[in-house]
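Below is how a single chain appears once it has passed through the pipeline. First comes the sequence as given, then the structure the pipeline wrote out for it. We keep one example in the README because the format questions we get most often are answered faster by looking than by reading.
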Amino acid sequence: MQALGPIQNHLQVYNFRKKVEVAPCPELSVWAVLPGQKPQDPPGERPPIPVVVCSPDPRVPVMGWRIVAGTKGNITDLLPKAQPGSYEEYCKHRYEHGVPEGVKDLPPGVALPLESNLVYMNGISFSKGCYLGQELTARTHHTGVIRKRLVPVSLSSPLPAECEESEIVTVSGKAAGKYRAGIGDLGLALLRLEHLGVELQIKLGGREPVNVNASTPDWWPKPGNTP
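Resulting structure:
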């Protein structure tokens, strides 16, 4: 929600002489249906709740389905076999699989689209033109040199809240990257790819360092199949 106002203002800047209204829709809600439960075809002609969108998550298959529906009614009427979960459980699922979302994972003005794996998540088109950052993004993509990427990490113990955005180092003290955000012992870190598979730590100054285990998501393209 903290990005709602800035996004609305940003879209309004590029609304030239068009009768288009950009406004929040509090009467709608967004639901994630994680793997293991697929939205069923609603019985009859009318679904039990008003559904605007029901489709596979366009980012990666591991994120399941997305539903945009009216706030009136109960989502379990549409998915009677589904087990309702919390937003925290949804975020843990994302972090476990290395899927960033929102301003904590992708800070505006800081996160770069290629380092954030947006190409892998159908977030960038190289056949379309005239979008902000197009030239730099396309040039970097076609040179094929991306030294850092956002990767899922597991921690030996949760970080204190004030230690988010902490530096990640090798056991010898060499800079390897930076912790971005997470919940509990799961999170995302922007790491130099050369340090994947290496023992990593976050030093807490006077306390026992937190060990960091970085991994490569299964949904990343295999070598030779990179978009």
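Residues 27-85 form one domain.

See the next section for the split statistics.
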